[in-house]
Amino acid sequence: MFTGIVQGLAPVAELVNENGMLRIGLQLEQMSDGLQLGASVAINGTCLTATKVDGVCAHFDVIPETVRTTNLGRLQLGDPVNIERSFRVGDEIGGHFVSGHVTTTAELIHQHNDAHDRVLTFRLPDQWMKYVFHKGFITVDGASLTVSSLDRGTCSFTVSLIPETLARTTLGTIQVGDQANIEIEAQTMSVVDTVERVLAESDRG
Question: Is the CB of residue 169 less than 8 Å from the CB of residue 163?
Fold first, then answer.
């Protein structure tokens, strides 16, 4: 379990494809303190298990399904990734509860500056738009963000980022055409699905 508060950026130090499995080595530096084998770490919002810890470097195995459904398969050596260690009881929850199970990816289709903020617009696969609401939570590459606007006609939504978020996450360097990992807020999905089911049962009745 995570909170969507990115703790830092880590460069990709190793990429190995082995029998269909992608192995990623990350230079975690101080974020590796106390990291144990088997621990969960969110990498660009994707919950992965530490399979090897060597000082300040940690390795993670990524199965083909995760490579297919996230942006981790597009990583290159030296690329920075967003890192969050798993939530511990007593930690401050600055974002919202995040599982690290990526729902889908979304393409950045536009970005512009608005005063001190940067506004990013993403196109989401249409089947997921019913779960996106103005001022609702959404996780983008592991960062807990608030939807600032949306357009259901174009299946797009925007988030507004302050300079601190731009400096601390990969969203400060993302380019138009890039894919970001998206996790839809679980409670929102549950409410929407429940309402749809109740309405469908009412219509049949």
Answer: no
Provide the whole-model pTM.
Answer: 0.92
Does the 8-85 domain belong in CATH 3.30.1360.20?
no
Question: In CATH terms, are 8-85 and 104-195 the same topology?
Answer: yes
Task: List the one residue out of 79, 76, 91 whose CA is nearest residue 5.
Answer: 91
Residues paired with residue 82 on neighbouring β-strands, in sequence order: 9
Give the C-alpha distances (Å, rounded to integers) separating 164 from 99, 103, 117.
24, 26, 10
Q: 25, 7, 139: which is closest to 75 by C-alpha?
A: 25
Rounded to whole angstroms, how far apart are CA atoms 205 and 201? 6
Where are the domains positioned within the chain?
Answer: 8-85, 104-195
HSE-CB at 87 with a 13 A cutoff on CA atoms is 17
Tell me: the pLDDT tens digits for 52-76?
999 999 999 999 999 999 999 999 9
Percent of the chain at pLDDT above 70? Answer: 96
Architecture of the structural domain at 104-195: Beta Barrel (2.40)
